[in-house]
Amino acid sequence: MKALAINNLKKTYANGNVALKGINLAVEVGDFYALLGPNGAGKTTAIGIVTSLVNKTSGDVEIFGHSIDKEIEAAKACIGLVPQEINLNLWENVANTVLNQAGYYGLNRQLARERTEKYLKALRLWDRRDHQARSLSGGMKRRLMIARALVHEPRLLILDEPTAGVDIEIRRSMWDFLREINAAGTTIILTTHYLEEAESLCRHVAIIDEGEIIEDAKMSTVLRKLQREVFVLSLARRLDAAPGLDGFETTLRDECELEVAIGPSRSLNDLFAQLDKQDITVVSLRNKANRLEELFMRLVKSKQEDRQESGT
Amino acid sequence: MNLSLNLVAMQTLVRKEVMRVMRIWVQTIVPPAITMTLYFIIFGNLIGRRIGTMDGFDYMQFIAPGLIMMSVITNSYGNVVSSFFGAKFGRHIEEMLVAPMSNATIIVGHVAGGVIRGLTVGLVVTVIALFFTKLEVRHPLVMVSMALLSSIVFSLAGFINASLARKFDDIAIVPTFVLTPLTYLGGVFYTISLLPEFWQKVSLVNPILYMVNAFRYGVLGISDIGIGHAYAIVSVFIALLFGSCLYLMNHGVGIRE
Q1: Percent of chain B scoring above 90 in pLDDT
Q2: pLDDT band, residue A295 (cuts 50/70/90)
Q3: For a 10 Å CB count at each end of chain B, is N or C smaller?
């Protein structure tokens, strides 16, 4: 049984816009799954169909074996959703927002109160429990939506851009929190524009573009497809020109920073050995671009070129 | 359908709706109280004294049940339409749509909210009416049941309006161009026996006439129509409107893309 199984899912909106062209996805139980894609690729539509917010045109969706066509209530009970847009009742207070959601999932009042306290504390909102949602900052609203999605302790948590507009400190603490609940057994599907976030958190990645899945594999497998990585080295002494290194492309960014592109047949050991011979000491190094980001751009660009060539 | 889940969900919805009405009581309870006080002063006291009696009752007594029913109808309708459309507009309707409660529960929960506000306002207006006139309730069961059933009818109608509405103008059109004229022509201020025969027959098409007259029968013991007809018509409307609400929810009309 899969946490989520999507088979040939299609969606055409009333205005004729084809958002999904027959996608297939299978999310294993306990996975931390990234669904990535540029704006308008179909991510939110796919999530909308899975969570019953959007009517599908055709195809099948099963959540923990429950078909959304035949067992919609059982399927819904398995899911917690943190949507992309803020969809809080801004006049409702924080505690009641979570309490009401618990009630909609059938949790009795006592249990609902306990869970509300648990998740508001976990997401550092307990001291704001009597405040109206409209008085919260953007980051707090996002955390409130996460608490609301978790109050019935769903088996599958879907987060659509959960950290958009959230500062770095809060984002990191949200990552830790998501890792914890995933480790405790909750399957998580994440869409994000921060590819560093997906690379850091997720074990599986699917990339969707123009309503089609163009990549669907383990994160490690996907990252291995990168043929070239670019590192930026901080040097101990100044250089006048980029040093010639056999098998590496080098560019001097400024007199103390060297950019080195490394192909699949070369290693960092080779690089350091050659730098050492030239008496160049490296103080620190970093990736020029996020690896997943680079791969993502390459896949999307390549797919778009394919489409242009085939005239579609 | 999971009965206990839906029961808890419905209690939650009703609690939320009641808290909403209480939180904004200045918008939900006070305006109808002020409006109806003005009706009693102007139509009942100032103009009513010149009109004299109607169907054997002084004019203030005659219009009191109609004004109570008018406030029940407009507030039941207004509560559901503003609450449900507000949830659509603010997108927090998604809180309900993603949850495993049934569509019938969502409808009944909102209707219960409309009924509670309608009857609360009705009670407030009744108390105000007692400052102006004497009301000896002849058939309390008829009075209470008709107020309840009428508030259900208009709560359901409000739900349909909110489901289909796309902008705020859409929720103002029905109360302005349909609800208010039907209420004013529904025998609140006069007995239809005063109308020419043709217009009496036309009036019989107006469902609010049946509700107002049945309610007046409950309070004063007089009515222009048969009470059995009123119950039958109200019951048919409830069935039709509930079926329409369920259809809209099941197909996501105006709610899901």
Answers
A1: 71
A2: confident
A3: N
Rounded Cα distance between A119 and A126, Å, is: 8
Verify whether the Cβ–Cβ distance A87 to B12 is below 8 Å: no
ipTM of the complex: 0.89
B174-227 pLDDT per residue, tens: 888 988 899 889 988 888 988 888 888 899 999 999 999 999 999 999 999 999
pTM of the model: 0.86
What are phi and psi for residue B40, nearest 5 degrees?
-65, -40
Q: Residue A58: which H helix or E strand, with range? A: strand A58-63
Asked whether the beta carbons of residue A100 and residue B95 sit closer than 8 angstroms, the reply is yes
Does pLDDT of A268 surpass 70? yes
Q: How far apart are CA A52 and CA A31, in angstroms?
A: 22
> How is residue A165 annotated by DSSP?
T
**Token duo for residue A89:** 């009742």
Distance between CA atoms of B185 and B206, rounded to whole angstroms?
8
Q: Where do we find the tokens 């946490």?
A: A3
Q: At what angle do helices B227-251 and B207-220 cross, to 10 degrees?
A: 130
Judged by a CB distance cut-off of 8 A, whether residue B253 touches chain A is no
The verdict on A69 touching B (C-beta cutoff 8 Å) is no
Q: Does B256 touch chain A (CB under 8 A)?
A: yes
CB-CB under 8 Å, A88 with B100:
no
CA distance A35 to A214: 11
A74 touches chain B (CB under 8 A): yes
